[in-house]
Amino acid sequence: MKDIDYDALKKRGFLRQKQEGYFVLRTRMANGNYHKEHLEKIAEIAKKYARGFVHATTRQGLEMPFIKYEDIDRVECELKAAGILTGTSGPRLRTTTTCPGNNWCKAGLVDTFRLSDRIEKELGICCPMDLPHKFKTAISGCPNSCTRVENSDIGIHGSVDIASADKKIGYKLYIGGCGGRTPRLGLKLEKVFSEDEALKIIERVIFFYKQNAKPRQRLGVLIEETGKDGFLKSII
Ligand code: SF4
Questions:
Q1: Cβ of 129 below 6 Å from ligand 1
Q2: Domain with 27 in it: what CATH number?
Q3: Residue 72 shares a structural domain with residue 178
Q4: What contacts 30, CB < 8 A, 6 or more positions away?
Q5: Is the pTM higher than 0.90?
Q6: In the chain, alpha helices (H)
Q7: CA angle in degrees (0–180, nearest 5) for 112-43-80
């Protein structure tokens, strides 16, 4: 197992596991929605190349442990042919975690799937974009925040703008939160934004982070270093 570029494999969705010679295959699908054809293919791969089971990740992906190094290229070809995307790890953008929002949740105020698709397709901000450190985005359809937006680098939830005469629905944003060993609440932006405004802010936050962060520096730490006012000036 010498001379293996583990980081390149990680970027392709194959993560070295604790057991020597085996890799976890991490898959992802936009908004965590897997169609039956995807699930059938994943079950087939699990049976053929792994140990016949899959694990549901906290970021709404499906992963399969115990893939052998020599099978990686074949597995990757089969996944691509079936239109299944792979997840990632390391200093990169992770898959956006989204709850169903108003697609079927009774409490949902906004279409979380549409916003997530616009971030990926219109802004080109999608997994596995290289960044100074891990970077997580979460979208919730309402202030219940089932995807824990307050603890994400960029967190967005649907909200009613009670200050507006017609009580319009828009988005609240939290920037610079994280979980892990040193959890941090994101900076709450004190306004309910329209969808287009939210997209502009997201784009600027990513740009600011790419331009200014040191390697392995999370966004929340960078904001602290920059100062809240200076940061807000750059993104709004
Ligand atoms: S955050 Fe709101 S819309 Fe999303 S699943 Fe939870 S209750 Fe439903």
A1: no
A2: 3.90.480.10
A3: no
A4: 85, 113, 116, 117, 120
A5: yes
A6: 6-11, 36-49, 72-81, 112-121, 195-212, 219-226, 228-235
A7: 65
Report the DSSP pairing between strands 14-16 and 22-28.
antiparallel
Q: Which of 115, 140, 151, 172 has most ligand 1 atoms within 8 Å of its beta carbon, as the pocket-test mutant?
A: 140
| Region of 90 on the Ramachandran plot (φ > 0 left; ψ -120 to 50 alpha; else beta) | left
Structure tokens at 38: 């995807």
Residue of 60, 72, 71 lying closest to 28 (CA atoms)? 60
From 114, 146, 169, give the residue whose CB has the most ligand 1 atoms within 8 Å, as the site to mutate. Answer: 146
**Is 109 close to ligand 1, i.e. is its CB under 6 Å away?**
no
Beta bridge partners of 86: 27
User: Phi and psi at residue 231, in whole multiples of 5°?
Assistant: -65, -50
Q: Which two tokens stand for residue 102?
A: 């108003």
The last residue of a domain, from among 58, 86, 114: 86
Say yes or no: CB of residue 142 within 6 Å of ligand 1: yes
- For 36, the domain range is 6-86
Alpha-carbon distance 156 to 143, whole Å? 9
Instruction: Tell me the two tokens of residue 236.
Output: 């709004």
100 lines ligand 1 (CB under 6 A): yes
CB atoms within 10 A of CB 18: 7
Tokens found for residue 174: 């939290």
Q: Rounded to an integer, what distance in angstroms lies between the CA atom of residue 82 and that of residue 42?
A: 9
Please give the average pLDDT of every successive group of 10 residues along the chain, which has 236 residues: 86 95 96 97 97 96 97 97 93 96 98 98 95 97 98 98 95 97 96 98 98 97 97 94
